Amino acid sequence: MTGVGTSSTASVVTGIDRLVRDIRTGRFERSLAALTAAGAVITTAEIYTSHDSASFGNRMMWWPIAVIPTLVPTGIAAVFSRRMAKTVLPAASALVVANGLQGTYLHARGIAQKPGGWKMAAYNLEMGPPLFAPLLATMVGGMGLLAAILRREEDPA
Predict the structure, then answer these.
(1) How far apart are the first and last CA of the chain?
(2) pLDDT higher at 5 or 78
């Protein structure tokens, strides 16, 4: 007889324990691939609006608009195909990470080119190109890389 204060043999797994179980069983790999695709859509939209407000003043501003959306079809394909998850998704993700790091450098250079440069960092960080924004793209690419190295559900333990 099960009463108050006793535990039953069938416990409900919730919270962080469920996440850990999903990682161990390989279920999280597909979820992270799907989140990578969704994150790429949101990140591309944000970058487009930011770069559009700057009138795409530098040709390099078009690069993330071309590169980051590659994670959308590859992330979706990785949900359904192990081959895509282990080959194309990491390649596209690495390209996005590289582009995000390049964007961070270009934004830092843009801040340095503002009047006063880094000597007026408090002002130029607010008024110049957003220094940490390209790292958002880098994180989305990093999610794709992480999804690619996680164990897939049908893989042997």
Answers:
(1) 37
(2) 78
